[in-house]
Amino acid sequence: MFGIGEIELFAIDLDGVVYRGDRVLPGAPSFISQIRGMGKSLVFVTNSTLRPKAYYVSKLESMGIPVIPQEILTAAHATGRYLKRCFDGASPTIFLLGERGLEEELEYLKPRYLSFQDDEVAQAVVVGLDRKINYRKLCKAVRDVMEGALFIGVNGDPLWPVEDGFMPGVGVFLSAIREATGVEPFIVGKPNTYMLELAIKVYGCTPSQVLMIGDKLDSDIMMGNRVGAKTALVLSGVTSPEELKEAPTDMQPYIVARDLAHLEDILFYSE
Ligand SMILES: [Mg+2]
Known about the structure:
CATH superfamily of the largest domain: HAD superfamily/HAD-like
Radius of gyration: 19 Å
Shape: globular
Order of helices and strands: EEEHEHEHEHEEHEEEHEHEHEHEH
Number of domains: 2
Number of strands: 15
Oligomer: single chain
Bound molecules: magnesium ion
């Protein structure tokens, strides 16, 4: 175990940790205000590709968790940061498989979007969740990647959890394009380390001063461990105690708690 004094940045997943659907989970508002009270930094890290930051700000506020947009790090936003770095701040031409929320997050790059009917080859093919994907869009994505466009996945999740089960996720589209082209995408979202490394840079701390809190072993916890952060698993989301027991070493968290209320007890009151 580590002392709370070692932690400067709390990186917290949203779904299954802070809320489930529209329901706030036990202890979340209190845990967040406790962190703020101690003067620590926090950032919410989500693989979401559909919604702009403003959506999360108002959702969290409605749950009694005041937050500023800079404290929300979505995979969609991080994709914009990655593109900015790749193109040195210049406006790229993009072929986008994605929806309005992703487009909004990329707007500040002033990209020029190509349609599936354009012959011009995009500089980057960016793949998020697109519920209106069709064969012609897939053709354009495959052709442009074959012609040398950067191939970027907002996240690699094969499944997208919804209220009544699962839908196919971004990973399904990436697999199709990878299968056709033989090109591996760069994946921005968890469990890859790009998002957490970005947060570490923005907040100016070291990896070991970060506590990554999440409910998914092969996503939140794996990313945290890969970066060299401390990790905490809450069992209020998708992971069962049995799954935890069987998980390999690189997915084992430092701490396990039932939910954020329990984690607050462990971190703040047990020393
Ligand atoms: Mg989650």
